[in-house]
Amino acid sequence: MDNQPLPSSPPLDRRAELSEFLRSRRARLKPEDVGLPDFGRHRRVPGLRREELAQLAGVSVAYYTRLEQGNGRNVSAEVLDSIARALRLSDAEHAHLTHLAKPKSHKKKPAARQQHVRVALRQLLDTMDGVPAYVVGRRSEILAWNRMAAALFGDWAELPAAERNWARLVFLRPEYRDLFVDWEQKAIDIVCALRMDAGCYPDDSRLSALVGELSVKSEEFRRLWATHDVKEKNHGVKRLHHPLVGDLSLNYESFRLTDDSDQSLLTYHAEPGSPSADSLRLLASWGTDAARPVPSA
Predict the structure, then answer these.
(1) Beta strand extents in 70-200 (DSSP E only)
(2) Beta-ladder partners of 87
(3) Would you say the pTM of this structure is higher than 0.70?
(4) How far apart are CA 156 and CA 169, in angstroms?
(5) DSSP string covering 53-84, please?
(6) Helices 205-217 and 183-200 sit at what angle, rounded to 10 degrees?
(7) Of 285, 247, 226, which is closest to residue 17 (Cα–Cα)?
């Protein structure tokens, strides 16, 4: 079930990504948000001015301007921390800024290498009879799954390997708009995860190809990608409208693998005694008959 190589594309421009990310974070702040006076003067751009941000971060305007123009060379961790505090970045945003400005040498490992799921992990998936579970890797690629995941989300085995990708499924396949009650939030989560990948692997040409394809084919993806938002969601509630059993409200948990931080195991379960729990048991009893094929694009 491992994905096959995708068409390659020129890598994302890390300097442009750094510049646009800083601009977008600065634009969302107002002077009153950070304790600065606002004298009511007309601003040519939304948010804080560069000189205001530089003042808050304790760096010169020229230094910050160079950084916002994409020149992160030789920037220190202390300066990045100060800028992150001034911009009120979340932990995920702070990590993303650090990846863009100071890419670590170990991140230069080939990002296009084949992703493999350990045999023992596949066996674990198969033993989770009543729990939909799957492993997702870089670029939102679905690498392995169990029978219950197929019953809940569709039989991904029927798809070409390159199409087993959450971004492609959510943005390009109408049936997934119907499946996720809050489709917009699912779409946001996927784009945020792809942005995190782009920060960790700016030279990943396959990720660039995926972003390029989705940008051409989906107006919603273009809109969300332009926000430069990044975040990590490790748990929460997902509401689904399944074509066979109707509405479900499921708790999900995401576990990043310690031996491969690019892979995460996701599980879904219902509150005991709830209608959703009954629906999951019904799906389990139907077995492979509930694993409806995913229509071709």
Answers:
(1) 133-136, 142-145
(2) none
(3) yes
(4) 10
(5) HHHHHTS-HHHHHHHHTT--TT--HHHHHHHH
(6) 150
(7) 226
Task: Give strand pairing partners of 293.
Answer: 155
Q: Which residue has the tokens 């509930």?
A: 290
Cβ burial 151-167 (10 Å sphere, 16+ → b, else e): bbbbbbeebebebbbbb
Q: How far is CA 255 from the centre of its chain?
A: 14
Report the alpha-carbon distance of residue 297 to residue 291 in Å, rounded: 18
CA-to-CA distance for 167 and 272, rounded, in angstroms?
Answer: 31
Which residues are within 8 A (CB) of 51 and not within 5 positions of it... i.e. 6 or more apart?
A: 61
The Cα-based distances of 73 to 50, 78, 85, 109, 146 in angstroms read 19, 14, 20, 20, 45
The secondary structure of residue 103, as a DSSP letter, is -
Cβ–Cβ under 8 Å, residues 247 and 241: yes
Cα gap 256→234, rounded to integer Å:
9
Q: Note whether 129 and 107 are within 8 A (CB).
A: no
Please give the chain's pLDDT, 297 residues, in tens. 334 444 556 677 888 889 999 999 999 888 877 777 665 566 666 788 898 889 999 999 999 998 998 887 788 889 999 999 999 999 999 999 998 887 665 444 555 567 889 999 999 999 998 899 999 999 999 999 999 999 999 989 999 998 999 999 999 999 999 999 999 999 999 999 999 998 888 888 899 999 999 999 999 999 999 999 998 888 999 999 999 999 999 999 999 998 888 999 999 999 999 999 999 999 988 765 555 555 555
Strands of 142-145's sheet in order across: 142-145, 133-136, 260-269, 246-257, 235-242
